Amino acid sequence: MLNKESIKLSQDFEIAETESFSKKIKIRDFESLKRKIENFVYPQLRTNPFYGSNIKKLKGQLKNIYRYRIGNFRLFYTIDSNKNIVIIIDIEKRKNSY
Q1: Other C-beta atoms within 10 Å of 90: how many?
Q2: Is 67:53 a contact under the CB 8 Å cutoff?
Q3: Coil, strand or helix at 95
């Protein structure tokens, strides 16, 4: 028997990027990550944005935000489970992100 979580995870999530993220990813510091994000990060987020070795749910006031670790960078996103959408909010160097 499948529970609701299993049903939701069997459907792929769509990826949506905020305008500020789209502008920031074009900056030279982050430009090299774009291909890695598209080829490795987005496929994982499409299938299961809730859990993974590089995924962590933040706490406190940021409890609705997740972070994905990409080396020395952190990709921040939120999930709309009702619409099956992962919304990419921001990317930062680790030292500037916390």
Answers
A1: 16
A2: no
A3: helix
| Reduced 3-state DSSP string for 37-91 | HHHHHHHHHHHCCCCCCCEEECCHHHCCCEEEEECCEEEEEEEECCCCEEEEEEE
- Report the sign of the C-alpha dihedral through residues 63, 58, 87, 79, in that order: negative
Task: Say what the pLDDT of residue 10 is.
Answer: 53
Stated pTM of the model: 0.85
In whole angstroms, what is the distance from residue 59 CA to residue 38 CA?
A: 27
Q: What are the structure tokens assigned to 35, written together?
A: 């291909």
Give pLDDT tens digits for 43-82.
Answer: 999 999 999 999 999 999 999 999 999 999 999 999 999 9
